[in-house]
Amino acid sequence: MNISTWLDEELSRRLPDLRRTGEGQTLEFKREVPVQARDLAKEIAAFASSNDGLILLGVADDGSVLGVPNADRPDVRDAVV
């Protein structure tokens, strides 16, 4: 699986370490894109009010990369935002 389809280059390099480190105060894994934008907005708001952080979509709680189906398509990426 090519997991760097639309990740930036720096994040692509850091991804293995982030996966090993696991979730914490500054890192959240989301197995899939939340159906309700509000659910993702709550995660973003939590980081914005406390720490800088990353939310990795398409990553399971154990750090395994599942990917986001069709993430190479602009309409799918735009739907996440």
Short synopsis of the structure:
By secondary structure, this protein is mainly alpha-helical. It has helices at residues 9-21, 37-50, 74-80; strands at residues 27-30, 54-57.
Q: Could you explain how this protein is built, in words?
A:
It is a single chain. The protein is mostly helical. It has three helices and two strands, in the order αβαβα. The protein has helices at residues 9-21, 37-50, 74-80, and strands at 27-30, 54-57. It has a two-stranded parallel ribbon with strand order 1-2. Helix 2 (37-50) links the parallel strand 1 and strand 2 (54-57). The longest helix has 14 residues, at 37-50. It is globular, with a radius of gyration of 12 Å.
Keywords:
single chain, mainly alpha, two-stranded parallel ribbon, 42% helix, globular
Strand content: 5-15%
Main beta-sheet annotation: 2 strands, parallel
Unreliable residue runs: none
Class by helix and strand content? mainly alpha
**N- to C-terminal distance:** 23 Å
Please provide the ordered H/E string of secondary-structure elements. HEHEH
How much helical structure, as a percent, in the residues?
A: 40-55%
Per DSSP E runs of 2 or more residues, the count of β-strands stands at 2
Q: What is the tally of helical segments?
A: 3
